[in-house]
Every structure is written in C-alpha cells, then in structure tokens.
Amino acid sequence: xxxxxxxxxxxxxxxxxxxxxxxxxxxxxxxxxxxxxxxxxxxxxxxxxxxxxxxxxxxxxxxxxxxxxxxxxxxxxxxxxxxxxxxxxxxxxxxxxxxxxxxxxxxxxxxxxxxxxxxxxxxxxxxxxxxxxxxxxxxxxxxxxxxxxxxxxxxxxxxxxxxxxxxxxxxxxxxxxxxxxxxxxxxxxxxxxxxxxxxxxxxxxxxxxxxxxxxxxxxxxxxxxxxxxxxxxxxxxxxxxxxxxxxxxxxxxxxxxxxxxxxxxxxxxxxxxxxxxxxxxxxxxxxxxxxxxxxxxxxxxxxxxxxxxxxxxxxxxxxxxxxxxxxxxxxxxxxxxxxxxxxxxxxxxxxxxxxxxxxxxxxxxxxx
Length: 368
Fold this sequence. Notes:
The radius of gyration is 21 Å and the shape is globular. The chain has one domain (about 5-360). It has a seven-stranded mixed β-sheet with strand order 4-7-3-2-1-5-6. The chain has a three-stranded antiparallel β-sheet with strand order 8-9-10, with helices on one face. A two-stranded antiparallel ribbon has the order 11-12. Helices cover about 25% and strands about 15% of the residues. It has about 375 residues and is an alpha+beta fold. The longest helix is centred in the N-terminal third of the chain and has 16 residues, at about 105-120. It contains ten helices and twelve strands.
C-alpha cells in the first residue's frame, strides 16, 4: 500500500480562518470553566526537540515503567466509565494507576500511538506506558465485566463476589496510563469541553493563538479522533496554587483510544480512506460523516497559519521516528482485519515520511 495520507494536508494553499458552528452543551458552563477556556493553552514547546524525540519509547520520568517490566499491583474496583476494558490498580507504594488491557482491544494500541504523537509535537496528552506483563492480585479474569455490573447499579457482591487478594491474574497485553497532573476544572454534572468551545479561546487574554487552535483541530482530523464527546477532553489547571485564579489553564484531549481508523480503531484501511478535507477549496474540515455525526466537533475552516503550524512540526519527524511510533505501540500485535495492518511499513507509508515535498510546501512552495 503506497497511500500518502498525510500529504493531503499540504497539497492545497489554504485560505483564511472560518467561524466554527455547533450546538452548545445542555449543561451551562460555570464561570470558572468559561474563564479557563478563554485563557486556555492547547500547545507548549516540547521539552525535547521533535527531531530528537523517541516516540517508540515509554515516556521518561521518575514514575516511568520499562517496556520489559513486570508490574505487580492490587485490584481496586470502582466506577469506570467508557466501553473499553480497564481498571484501577494500586502499586506497592500506594500509587493508583489506570490499566487498559486486552490483546484484541484496539484502544491500547491506538492510544499509545496517538498520545505519543501529540506529546512529541507539543500538544498535551496523558502518558501511556507499554509493559511486559501486569500481575494483578485480587483481579478476576476479566475485571471490566464486574465494573460494568457496578456501573449498571449492581451490588458489589453480585458483581465480584469475594475478592481473593492472595490470588492473581496476569495480563500480558496491558498498558498503564498516567494523567497530566493538575486540577481538573469540572463539576459533578459537567466535565471536559466540546470542540466548538475552542472558538472561546482569546489570544489577547493570554490564550492559545488561532494557529495553535487550528493545528489541534487539524491534528484531530489527521489521527481520526472520532470519539470526541466532552468527557474525552479535559480542562485542566497546571497552576500549583489551586486556591487562586488558574495561571495556566490547558484544554487537552484526555482519551485518544478511538483513533487511526474511524469508525473503528487502529484500522489501516479506514484511516487511509478517511479524507483530511471536507472541502479543500474552502479549507473546511468536518467529522459530519464520522460516528455520532462528529459529536461536538463542528465543521470549521482551518487558517493557513494553522496548517503551516502543524505541517512544519509533522515534517520534522523522520520516517524512522514514525516507524518507532507504531512499533512502540505494538501495532503488529493487534488482530488486524487486514493482515497488512501488522506491517509497520504500511503505517509509515500511510503517515507519509519526512520528504522534501513536505518541507517545501510547508514553506509555501508547492512541489512540482
């Protein structure tokens, strides 16, 4: 397969900004939410230059995990939203982590790849760690079945029975998620943000620039982030002083599991066939034909500055880095409907490796 999906980002000279449209959420936002959205950031200069990034590796840090590590923890049952197998588990030091599991769970491959790509480019995302094995004491064979039972109002004993913390189950296909640290700006009834709210961000008030906002919108289209309901985005305060006005509000994507192949996950065929532009001449992007009609993602015209912002950063990735990205996410281990999906080279070709055409057009010069 020689598809060049990302090249479509750069083959059109785009026009100016357009206005977003969409339905507002049913619950009225709080004043704190409105103030934070107005000043929200969506991008930061990455600590490691893009050319030096290692997207195939687990994120670094004192609380990191090795891909060869066997992690031991104790099951901590409780409410767990969403539809993908996951559970909370407590490490020996008392640290509680979220675990997503299942060899046939496309989310654990897609979210690793998508979150690492965003972080590499400077768009905040949670850290996802690939590990060799997770040994969970007290875990049933399929913990998420019990938590779904709890979510539906079942009694604990009926859902789980008596948990035996002297016994364990091993999970060979599991990833550990660590959230970006900070205070979540949410209430019991409302959380996250919808994509139409990006229009509220005001650069004059200290928020992200239009170029950065449009780059995030375009990146969401590029990776195929189709499950984009408000709860899958997070409005976060990075300020250490949470008693005063938030110094650094951030509007970030917090769940990237439904990516790379709408309407499914980590589906090479669907990802390649999904167009970037709804109307290239009008510079419009849309998720209208995606699952749920695009949910809270409105049709919007992307500014040339936004296209340039994303194009110049994607063009700094080498083909080897792209290869590492999909290898590090263990994409060949997934049960792909099309066997070509197991071939990392096909993902590299679809992503479109670094090329002179990208670099030249990112500077406003169309290739011959």
